[in-house]
Amino acid sequence: MSEIITCDQNSKMPKDLIESLNFSQAGVGRHKCVLCAYQNGIKDGENKVLDFAKDDEVEECQHGRKALKSSIENIHINQRPAQGRHKCVICAYHLGYEVGAGIRENDFDEFSEDEIEDENIIYDITSFGTSSDVKTIYNRLIKKKYYIPPFQRDYVWDDSKASKLIESLVIGLPIPSIFLAKDDGKDENYYIIDGQQRLKSIERFYNGEFALKNVAKQFDKLDFNGKKYSELDEKLKDRIDEYTIQLIIIRQEKPDDNNDSIYKIFERINTEGIKLLPQEIRASSYHGKFNELLSELANKPEWVKLLEMKNTRKSHEELILRFLALYFYLDKYKSPMKHFLNVYMSKNRHLKHNSKQDIEDIFNRTMEICSQFITKEDICLIGSNRVNTQLLDSILVGIAKNIDNPELLIDGYIKDKITGLRQEIDSGAYEYKDYWESRNSKEEFVKGRCEITIELFGE
Question: Under a CB-based contact definition with an 8 Å cutoff, are residues 180 and 148 in contact?
Fold first, then answer.
């Protein structure tokens, strides 16, 4: 194996690959280093670097979020949420509002756990560059050694775009590196962080699912326009089979109780495309029996009836995950919520801490009660038709912790309790109003609201 070279910016790659790079790949800033240029996907012959922010002003809002000035200046005022801390345009930008969109992807009030993250976590990450020929990559794809994670958006390339990729392989043009992360759950398996559209296009072409189209006229003499892989002559097949694609392999060494750094890499690599939501990334990072169970529970009729809304981008799975994590481990809760949910999903990935039977039992019993006595109105703040995440998880935990209380089955008991709670929150007289209106995930807020509902439904 070739010697691994490390630069002063900690970029790594095999020595034999460095020697083959054109130094015009590097330009200014940290990417003047040819290793950094390579690791950041700068194409051969391009002087443009990914150091795009070097002359841009960075703005920080009062909530601690940062964004490039050029990234937020075109966000419309109607894209900002109507209330709460996220009416701030920088927060709106971080929450995935797109220019001209005006509304969010879901119908939840202050949904998800996007609070400021813990800056004290230090990661030990191993990453290195390697390469593989296309035929080997294809074989690994069909054997599921390279795993396309469930959070990934559907395959969206049309045949013309896929054909351009294959054309690049035939004529020897470079394509961007593929980012892979080691799957600790299975030996020699990797899931794809970035490059799913390219790899899926290669797989489809080998499988004969499309013929090349709109090939550039200057390559007519190669006679591959309109042909599927099986119809190419052996010489062209060999060019595709033997084409080398650069791979960046990433693995988190520490902390060893979760994959948070891989989670962050997912987020940052994809900031130029569709912003990934936390549960979409968890579904990939911690895919397994627990993830499959969350999807099953999200499709239960009682759950669907309660929320009365479409499950977009795994939002329902995240709400169920919140409920289960707080039900089983409320006493161990530590902020931020995102990290708490990551650790819980990681540790219970294979249903070893909480069994499928235990989870299904408490979920089904809780939902049976909810389906009889609770409607969507009960999990919204007064005057809003949007589900309040904090109200929902605290009500579910409160009921679940008192699941054997016979009074829960008395008609009007739960309804009256929730109505009184919502009225006190709305009036402003309730001592802990912020527990349900704030996105702050500090222990006092999360534990406080759950303890209130546990006591409420235990009376």
Answer: no
Domain ranges of the chain: 58-104, 124-254, 275-456
Q: What are phi and psi of 246, to 5 degrees?
A: -80, 135
Determine the Cα–Cα distance for residues 190 and 183; give it in Å rounded to an integer. Answer: 5
Give the Cα separation of 446 and 267 in Å (integer). Answer: 25
| Residue 425 phi, psi (nearest 5) | -65, -45
- Crossing angle, helix 413-427 and helix 443-456, to 10 degrees? 140
- pLDDT in single tens digits along all 459 residues of the chain: 446 666 665 555 555 545 544 443 344 343 446 555 544 443 333 333 323 334 445 667 766 666 555 445 544 433 444 333 345 666 654 444 333 333 333 455 544 444 434 445 666 777 888 999 999 999 999 998 998 766 566 688 999 999 999 989 988 888 888 989 887 666 678 888 888 899 999 999 999 999 988 877 666 667 788 899 999 989 999 999 999 999 998 877 776 666 666 666 766 666 545 566 788 878 877 878 999 999 999 999 999 999 988 888 889 999 999 999 999 999 999 988 988 999 999 899 999 999 999 999 999 999 999 999 999 999 998 888 899 999 999 999 999 999 999 999 999 999 999 999 999 888 875 566 677 765 678 898 899 999 999 999 997
Q: Which long-range contacts (CB under 8 A, 24 or more apart) does 242-245 make?
A: 242/133, 242/134, 242/135, 243/133, 243/134, 243/169, 243/172, 244/131, 244/132, 244/133, 244/134, 245/131, 245/132, 245/133, 245/134, 245/137, 245/175, 245/177, 245/178
